[in-house]
Amino acid sequence: MVNKDEIKIVCENRKARHDYFIEETFEAGILLTGTEVKSLRASRVNLKDSFARIENGEVMLHQVHISPYEQGNRFNHDPLRTRKLLLHRSEINRLTGKMQQQGLTLIPLKIYFTRGLAKIELALAKGKKLYDKREDIAERDAKREVERHLRERQKL
């Protein structure tokens, strides 16, 4: 029996966690056309360099490349069109306040299907400086080195 709440991840923005400090995450629906949904189901999407902005009280998703559907002919969509995200008014107001006060940005982390609906995970994020990225790399290397030494010690 198939679980109805099963999540099928279509695309993930791994670079976002490297380039930004993730403060908080939100789930939003995406307003799509028919051929966009078919392309999403075929995992033909790219989140690189994408972002979300609040315009006229609505959250809009920019620079997400959803490839045209191969059998879509004249009904196909523009691959880089701006798409509306579906959030509650209270969530939009909260996001607007945090973005204005703290200088945070909205970055999409992943697109997935749950119960047949296309959803996107948005993150309120703060950009990392170059030295922050270097610190992360140094910490990861140090952790890997310690684990390697522990494994060698257990072998003896």
Relevant terms:
single chain; alpha+beta; Small Protein B, Chain: A; seven-stranded antiparallel sheet; two-stranded antiparallel ribbon; 4 helices; 9 strands
How are the SSEs ordered, and which strands pair?
Blueprint: E1 7-12, H1 14-19, E2 20-30, H2 34-41, E3 45-46, E4 51-55, E5 58-62, E6 65-66, E7 83-86, H3 89-102, E8 105-114, E9 117-127, H4 130-155
Antiparallel strand pairs: 1-8, 2-7, 2-9, 3-6, 4-5, 5-7, 8-9
Can you put this structure into words, describing what you see?
This protein has 156 residues and is an alpha+beta fold. It has one domain (8-128): Small protein B (Small Protein B, Chain: A), CATH 2.40.280.10. The chain has helices at 14-19, 34-41, 89-102, 130-155, and strands at residues 7-12, 20-30, 45-46, 51-55, 58-62, 65-66, 83-86, 105-114, 117-127. The strands form two sheets. The protein has a seven-stranded antiparallel sheet. A two-stranded antiparallel ribbon has the order 3-6. A hairpin with a 2-residue loop joins strand 4 and strand 5 (58-62). The radius of gyration is 19 Å and the shape is globular. The termini are far apart. 20% of the residues are buried.
Summarize the structure.
The protein is an alpha+beta fold and 156 residues long.
Q: Give the biggest beta sheet.
A: 7 strands, antiparallel
What strand line-up does the widest sheet have? 1-8-9-2-7-5-4
Strand tally is 9
Q: Which fold name is given in CATH as the topology?
A: Small Protein B, Chain: A
Quaternary arrangement of the chains shown?
A: single chain
Helix content: 25-40%
The unreliable regions are none
Q: What is the radius of gyration? A: 19 Å
Following the backbone from N to C, one meets helices and strands in this order, namely: EHEHEEEEEHEEH
The number of helical runs is 4
Question: Tell me, what is the CATH class?
Answer: Mainly Beta
Structural class: alpha+beta
Strand proportion? 35-45%
Shape: globular
Question: Between the first and last Cα atoms, what is the distance in angstroms?
Answer: 47 Å
